[in-house]
Amino acid sequence: MISSGVIGIIGLVVFFIFLASGVHIGIAMGVVGFLGMVAVMGISPALGALSSLPFHYSFEWIFVVLPMFLLLGHFSLHGGIGEDAYTAAQKWLGRVRGGLGIATTAACAAFGFASGSSLATAAMFTHLSLPEMRRQGYDDGLSCGLHCCIRNPGCLNPSQWNYGCLYCFCGGGIPGQTAHCRDTSRSYDSGPLYTCLVCKVEV
After folding, report:
1. Which tens digit of pLDDT belongs to each residue from 103-138?
2. pLDDT band, very low/low/confident/very high, at 17 (cuts 50, 70, 90)
3. Residue 164 — φ and ψ, nearest 5°?
4. Which three-class secondary structure string do you get for the chain?
5. Which of 3, 46, 108, 111 is the most exposed place for a label (fewest CB within 10 A)?
6. Alpha carbon of 65 to those of 54, 119, 120, 133, 145: distances in Å?
7. Half-sphere exposure of 193 (CA within 13 A, CB side)
8. Range of lowest pLDDT (117-121, 128-132, 145-149, 161-165)
9. Helix axes 25-41, 43-58, angle to 10 degrees
10. Would you state the pLDDT for residue 162?
């Protein structure tokens, strides 16, 4: 009988083989996850989970707010708010190499601290900041990779609907902001005061 740890390692290897072969990441994760459940639990429980889990996780009530974040992003994009905000950010951080990327990281950190949702952060800032980064000449690969990375620490910032303010500020805010500071200090050249302060915060 193969242990669950060995099954997990085999699943990771198969998953990376799928990615290297050009398989879509969603399909690769779904196939590997289903085969892993079959190997661990058996075919009948795996089919039962396959019939219920997608509905269960996609119909969480918190996803109701995502259309509003998307709409807010469209308003900011077409109303000129995003362009003005990133013009100001470029002037404030223009002397720092990658200043617009640092501004995007800081904005995502603040927004994730308030919302506590990585999905909402990605939905908001993909529409708001990605066009401005393209306009400033940033490479699409760098811009998309930055947005994918900086949304994840938002999960460390618990939102206020699920926790009290004390837990929000002390239990989740400090690690979430520290993670953003770490990513910023490693992504850009040291030099100006901002990056020096960020390096001091890293734990």
Report:
1. 777 777 666 665 556 666 677 777 777 887 888 788
2. very high
3. -75, 170
4. CCCHHHHHHHHHHHHHHHHHCCCCHHHHHHHHHHHHHHHHHCHHHHHHHHHHHHHHHHCCHHHHHHHHHHHHHHHHHHHCHHHHHHHHHHHHCCCCCCHHHHHHHHHHHHHHHHHCCHHHHHHHHHHHCHHHHHHCCCCHHHHHHHHHHHCHHHHHCCCCCCCCHHHHHHHHHHHHHHHHHHHHHHHCCCCCHHHHHHHHHCC
5. 3
6. 19, 10, 8, 25, 24
7. 2
8. 161-165
9. 140
10. 47
Per-residue pLDDT at 159 exceeds 80: no
> What tokens were used for 80?
């000129």
Closest listed residue to residue 160, CA positions, set 111, 102, 115:
115
Please, what is the Cα angle at 154 between 153 and 159, to 5 degrees? 145
| Residues in Cβ contact with 114 at an 8 Å cutoff, skipping those fewer than 6 apart | 157, 159, 160
Q: Extract the tokens encoding 66.
A: 């995502």
Q: From its phi and psi, is residue 137 left (phi > 0), alpha (psi between -120 and 50) or beta?
A: left
Say how far apart CA 138 and CA 142 lie, in whole Å. Answer: 7
Tokens of 117: 């949702």
Q: Is the pLDDT of residue 185 over 60?
A: no
